[in-house]
Each structure stands twice: as structure tokens, then as C-alpha cells.
Amino acid sequence: MTLKFGVIGTGAIGKEHIRRITNNLSGGKIVAVTDVNEESARSAVRQFGLDAVIYPDDKALVADKNVDAVLVTSWGPAHEQSVLAAIEAGKYVFCEKPLATTAEGCMRIVEAEMKYGKRLVQVGFMRRYDSGYVQLKQAIDNNYIGEPLMVRCVHRNPDVGESYTTDMAIHDTLIHEIDVLHWLINDEYKSVQVAFPKKTKRALAHLCDPQLITLETKSGIIITAEVFVNCKYGYDIQCEVIGEEGVAYLPEFSGITTRKDARLGTSILTDWKDRFIDAYDKELQDFMDSIKKTGEPNGPTSWDGYVAAVTADACVKAQQTGGKETVALTEKPAFYKIEKEVAETV
Ligand code: NAI
Ligand code: ISE
């Protein structure tokens, strides 16, 4: 059985996902596309030689009986409407982060999905499929480094566009750490705080960069996460878990090592698309395979999207107040309690 996708939003990651479904992965086909910029949709169809209908908007695309699953890769503020329309039509949804731009919006999706009665939605938190994070999780779950006590991580981008704002460091960038870290250490966030170190000369006037976010979990683990989106030298993701019995590091994503001119060298990636290329492939392949196998997607759920949004909101509040802010999560509904082992599929 081929899962037939309709794609909403054919920008950077929309095209990346179309490419991988069309050329790399098995079991999926793009049959419909839409974008508010119609030329973008047309160019995707041309670029990948798709046999796909171009729709004027998300509602028309979701209504197409030929579409089994909707891939939401539009701008964040447009996600909620498209995801809700897909759930109402009983279609599977793979939604890029954020699931919605507010915690209330994520909760509306959670409620719609529970009302529908089965899981339809997977959120594009691809780091859970990255082999480095999977190995780190296995080390923690197998008690190789003992109880985690602290985590230190880094999320650096070489630069960002003019439209990138201080709160986007949380909603757009840190959101990946927010999702992957509580999954990694099997804990829940309790409070957050944000500090603004000396500002880089490369950041535009409106942007505070870098930022240092501290997240405390219910069991007392302290996580420090640096977001630095004008670091210039590359796209750099680091994570170090300090346990009672030892320390585990996220593997470096590196190319060849060179020895030349009295220097030991290796290159650093500059583009997020390359750093997580395998994880993007795996998350979408898992989405298709698990739907075929079990009738439901297996990856990060709408509830995970909600947890990330609540935590991100607390971080944005902490940016404004300078104080420690509580992460006020409600009890996880039984509907989302059956955890499936993503690690097994990697
Ligand atoms: P982009 O700006 O390149 O593309 C977004 C596209 O959506 C544009 O072509 C725009 O015209 C279209 N669009 C906006 N509103 C629409 C609507 N209502 N209906 C149809 N089309 C609409 O942005 P990019 O980088 O592709 O990001 C898209 C989403 O993917 C964002 O939510 C972003 O946070 C997420 N993302 C996730 C990544 C990951 O690592 N998981 C990496 C990059 C982006
Ligand atoms: C981008 O939107 C992403 O989602 C990437 O994965 C992330 O690492 C990058 O910093 C964001 O700008």
C-alpha cells in the first residue's frame, strides 16, 4: 500500500521532505500540493516531476479523497488550522514543529485527536530518530552512566535572517532541545530561567544573542542550554549528560580527519539539513511504516507538541521577567500513555 501525501507549504523543508519521499524513502507518494505562494507549489511539482494536483489552499487539499496523509510544512502560525482540518477529515498528519504556535492551539489539536479516537498526528521532532541521541538514550536507559545529574547542551547556527526575533530562539530553535531532552532523561520539566550573556556584535539590534537557558526537572536534574544563532563558524549541536557513574556525549557529526601543515583538522557542518539528514529520513519512513503496520503513527505525538509549547511559553516568560518560571503541565491523558519504542526502529 502506498501512502498518498498532500503537502501544505512547499518552502525549504517542504521541498526537502518531498524530495526524500519521492526519491529516497519507500511507501509514499506526493499526490497534492498547496502553498500560499502558488509559484512555489508549481516549482516543487516541476523540480521533482510530481504527478500532483496543485490546490489553492489547505482546505481543498485536505478534502481530496485521494489524499491519505497531510504533510504540514507551512509557516508555524498556519499549522494549527491545517492540522485541525486534517483530523476532522480523519487523515493522518505529519506536522513540522511547532505543532501550533500557542499551548492553547496545541491543546485544541490534542482534544480533536482524542475526540477522533485514534492517533493521527506525528510532530517533526526528528532528533528522537538521530542515531547519536538514540545511543545517548540507550546509555542512560541501560544505566551505563548512572543517574543523570546535569545536562549541558549547545545549539549554534552560523547566522539568521532579519525576521528572527529574541523569542524565536526559544520557539524556533531551543524547541528541539526542549523536546528531545525530557525524552532522553525520562523526566519532566519543573521550571526554567533565561540569562542573556554579553551580546555578539553580529546580532541585529532587535535580537538578544546568545542566550543561556536553564531548565530544572522534577527529579532535580539541571539542564543548561546555550542558543547562539550568529556563531558564524557553523551549525553545531552538542549534548553532554553528566551521570553519577560517568559522562556521555552526543557523537560529533564529522567528516574526515586531516593532518596537514602541523594541524589536526575536521570540518564542521553549516546547514541543519545536512546535520539531521538521516533523522529526517527515519522519522518519515517510520511515519509511513507504522501507519501501514498498526494504523497509527509511532513518533512524537500531539501531546509532545503540547509539552514543548508549554515549556517554550515558560521560557519566553522567563526571558521577559528574568526570573525562574514554572512549567505548568497538566496530567498526560491516558490516550497518550502507551509509549512506543522509537529507538527500536532506528
Ligand atoms: P519556508 O519559509 O522556507 O517555507 C514555508 C512555506 O509555507 C512557504 O513557501 C510559504 O509560502 C508557505 N505557507 C505559509 N503559510 C501557508 C499556508 N497557510 N498554506 C500554505 N502554504 C503556506 O520555511 P521552512 O524553513 O520550510 O519552515 C517551515 C516549517 O518547518 C516551520 O514551521 C519551521 O519551524 C519548520 N522547520 C523544521 C525544521 C526541523 O528541523 N524539523 C527545519 C526547518 C524548518
Ligand atoms: C530551524 O527552524 C530548525 O528547526 C532546525 O532544526 C534548527 O536547528 C534551526 O536552528 C532552526 O532555525
Walkthrough of the structure:
There is one protein chain. This protein is α/β, with parallel strands linked by helices and 346 residues long. It has two domains: 3-127 and 278-301 and 335-344, NAD(P)-binding Rossmann-like Domain (Rossmann fold, 3-Layer(aba) Sandwich); 142-269 and 308-326, Dihydrodipicolinate Reductase, domain 2, CATH 3.30.360.10. Helix content is 38%, strand content 23%. The protein is built from eleven helices and 15 strands. It has helices at 12-24, 38-48, 58-63, 76-88, 103-116, 131-141, 168-185, 272-275, 277-294, 302-321, 342-345; strands at residues 3-8, 28-34, 53-55, 69-72, 92-95, 121-123, 148-156, 189-195, 211-217, 222-228, 236-243, 247-249, 257-260, 263-266, 325-326. The strands form three sheets. It has a seven-stranded mixed sheet, covered by helices on one side. Strands 3-2-1-4-5-6 form a six-stranded parallel sheet, sandwiched between helices. Strands 13-14 form a two-stranded antiparallel ribbon. The longest helix has 20 residues, at 302-321. The protein is globular and about 55 Å long. It starts with a strand and ends with a helix. Mean pLDDT is 96; it is low at 341-346.
How many structural domains in the coordinates? 2
The rounded distance between the terminal residues' Cα atoms is: 22 Å
Structural class computed from helices and strand pairing: alpha/beta
What is the H/E string?
A: EHEHEHEHEHEHEHEEEEEEEHHHEH
Rg measurement, Å: 20 Å
Count of DSSP E strands? 15
The average pLDDT score comes to 96
Q: Architecture of the largest domain, CATH level 2?
A: 3-Layer(aba) Sandwich
The outline comes out as globular
β-sheet strand percentage: 15-25%
CATH superfamily of the largest domain: NAD(P)-binding Rossmann-like Domain
CATH class of the largest domain: Alpha Beta
Small molecules bound in the structure, each named once: 1,4-dihydronicotinamide adenine dinucleotide, (2R,3S,4s,5R,6S)-2,3,4,5,6-pentahydroxycyclohexanone
Main sheet?
Answer: 7 strands, mixed
Kindly report the CATH topology of the largest domain: Rossmann fold
Q: Number of helical segments? A: 11
Name the poorly predicted regions. Answer: 341-346
Percent range of helical residues? 25-40%
Oligomer: single chain
